[in-house]
Design a protein that fits this description.
alpha/beta, nine-stranded mixed sheet, four-stranded antiparallel sheet, 23% strand, globular
Length: 345
Amino acid sequence: MAETTAAGPLVKVRDLKMYFPIHAGLFKSHVGDIKAVDGISFDIAPGETLGLVGESGCGKSTVGRSILRLYDVTDGTVEINGSEIAHVDRDSLRSKRPMMQMIFQDPQASLNPRMTVASIIAEPLDEHLELSSKERLARIYELMDWVGLNREFAKRYPHEFSGGQRQRIGIARALALNPKFIVCDEPIAALDVSIQAQVVNLLEELQDRLDLTYLFISHDLSMVRHIADRVAVMYLGRIVEVASRDALFAEPLHPYTQALLSAVPEPDPASERNRTPIVLQGDVPSPANPPTGCNFSTRCPKAMEICRQMEPGVFEFGGGRQVACHLYSDDMAEPAEPTAGSESN
């Protein structure tokens, strides 16, 4: 676990599981589960950005939605700002919504096409606060100013905007209730490359101004390297490595992390010519039927017999760095202690 403040982490996730049941047959019997998230743990310190990376389908977005209780979690605990989230009733959950928000991947799909910009931004205000018409309009204009939208656009509809502008509307809506924690679910994936940097810079500016804490979910490693303080690498429902951004990109330890980073192009032509990507063989196993032992054992170029028999423990390398891999089960690392300041699968 990376360093946290004396007050402790803002977000604390322990052994989170999100299984989706599989039903089959005439009577729709429960025949199995899709293990989208299979027992992950991590902390996020106040004001920090934790990047969550991995291949498509590994469970990244499900983690974000489960933390915010957009899904009813199967097991595990989630605490945000000291409040339990995972298992509270709906009425209690509603009162906690203002402190946690989400920025969605597709701004076009996440905005109601029949509502004006002002109505979209004001929807959380109308739901949770009692404001006069003057206060409501002033808050809408303030939020539009924060995200760089012209106030004259307030009466326009989402289809009249570009993708980047629509994402700014979504960000303004997420900020309406002054949240402490925001899940950014691939917020730039649906945008043109020329717009992506603008949106990421906006998120960084808002974080500095409002002291926000982010879980930044992405498969774009170069963007995660730019915005994240720490990075968690996920594979098939489990976290395989957690490290500070600089440590992870300088020396990835887990074979899966090494393969991911080897595919990132180098900006320097000389380095790019000498780069040798690690090509993983085979397909990602189904989360409905994960391999025995380590989930990565079927594709790992360094797999040993124990990898196919036993799930690896989580080993601590100091400075908050942790790796779940049998390669480090000797004297190179110490087993991670299951304390509030550690992370484990």
